[in-house]
């Protein structure tokens, strides 16, 4: 069985639209990691952090960056793939950059743990040695994988913990993403949003997209009354 590709990626989840905040070194490392012209003695990179720290955004950004550098990329979301046969990833080792999101979702799944372990081994044996970027909610040692050899492989390369998003940082992220789309919103508007909606980062980004669309359609600036109307709050 072969994975149906390509997977569609959000076109606005790039390094330019990521508020770096306390993740400067991690982002700089990833940008170089996605460029074949940059030599690296490590072919795997592992990111971990709690929900809302921007893991998926960074994996999307890595795919975009690698494509700009002429590399073939693939994005795998284990949240979506965990119920499928692990054989569907048999051929992804042929890609230059392999991004694997939500790896914690396959913890204690023997078939999937073995498949990821085999993928890392196969990649290390290839002459062109594809680079692998993995994200999860915890470090390799604490996720709860049942295969000790997989834990060992996941620590072969660089391991980064992403900074937790404070309330102040969430406000800055929303402001940053709105400005990235050419929108302006007062501090009061952003505080209103954070008290009335689900504060999980992926949900906030969906709300930014919706406000962008509704504001453009109505040709109106972002105000609290307009936000209430646009989001039916």
Automatic annotation (TrEMBL):
Occurrences of domain Hda lid (ranges): 171-231
- Domain of life of the organism encoding this protein: Bacteria
Q: Which SUPFAM superfamilies match?
A: P-loop containing nucleoside triphosphate hydrolases
**Cited InterPro entries:** DnaA_dom, Hda, Hda_lid, P-loop_NTPase
Question: What does the entry give for GO biological process?
Answer: DNA replication initiation; negative regulation of DNA-templated DNA replication initiation
Ranges of residues in domain Chromosomal replication initiator protein DnaA ATPAse: 12-159
Please report the name of this protein according to its UniProt entry. Answer: Putative regulatory factor involved in inactivation of DnaA
- Give the organism's phylogenetic lineage: Bacteria, Pseudomonadati, Pseudomonadota, Gammaproteobacteria, Alteromonadales
């Amino acid at each position: 069985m072969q994975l149906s590709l390509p997977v569609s990626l959000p076109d606005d989840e790039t390094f330019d639209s990521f508020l770096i905040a306390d993740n400067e070194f991690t982002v700089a490392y990833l940008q170089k990691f996605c460029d074949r012209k940059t030599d690296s003695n490590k072919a795997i990179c592992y990111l971990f952090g709690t929900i809302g720290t921007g893991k998926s955004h960074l994996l999307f950004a890595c795919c975009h960056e690698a494509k700009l550098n002429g590399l073939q990329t693939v994005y795998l979301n284990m949240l979506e793939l965990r119920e499928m046969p692990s054989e569907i990833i048999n051929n992804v080792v042929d890609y230059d950059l392999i991004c694997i999101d939500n790896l914690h979702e396959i913890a204690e799944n023997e078939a999937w743990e073995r498949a990821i372990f085999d993928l890392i081994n196969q990649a290390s044996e290839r002459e062109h040695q594809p680079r692998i970027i993995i994200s999860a909610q915890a470090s390799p040692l604490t996720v709860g994988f049942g295969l000790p050899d997989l834990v060992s492989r996941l620590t072969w390369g660089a391991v980064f913990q992403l900074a937790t998003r404070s309330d102040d940082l969430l406000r800055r992220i929303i402001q940053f993403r709105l400005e990235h789309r050419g929108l302006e919103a007062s501090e009061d508007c952003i505080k209103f949003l954070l008290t009335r909606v689900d504060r999980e980062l992926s949900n906030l980004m969906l709300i930014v997209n919706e406000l962008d669309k509704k504001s453009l359609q109505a040709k109106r600036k972002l105000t609290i009354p307009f936000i209430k109307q646009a989001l039916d709050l």
